[in-house]
Design brief:
By secondary structure, this protein is α+β, with helices and mostly antiparallel strands. It has one domain: Double Stranded RNA Binding Domain. It contains four helices and three strands, in the order αβββααα. The termini are far apart.
């Protein structure tokens, strides 16, 4: 197991992680959940070799996985159901 795959295995312990190299120096990351749902993400060479960009990519993947699992609240639930007129001043 290469270093990149080890990194993502430690970050996403609930998933089976596989990586495939790409010709541009990036990787195709595949995450398989216990229920066999598959998520794929292409990570560029720059994302893999910059700590800040890698951190952002991991955060984005976590957000996408949470969204797929319906762990994020529906936007309509976050919005106020009551609308008020704005105050007017004379």
């Amino acid at each position: 197991m290469d270093l990149i795959q080890q990194k993502f295995t430690s970050v996403f312990p609930g998933y089976q992680v596989s990586t495939q190299p790409r010709p541009d120096g990036g990787v195709l990351l595949t995450l398989r959940a216990a229920d066999n749902k598959v998520s794929r993400r292409v990570l560029s060479y720059a994302q893999l070799h910059s700590a800040e960009q890698l951190s952002w990519a991991i955060s984005a993947i976590r957000r996408d996985l949470a969204e797929q699992a319906s762990e994020l609240p529906v936007i309509s639930m976050l919005q106020s159901q009551q609308r008020f007129a704005l105050p007017t001043y004379r």
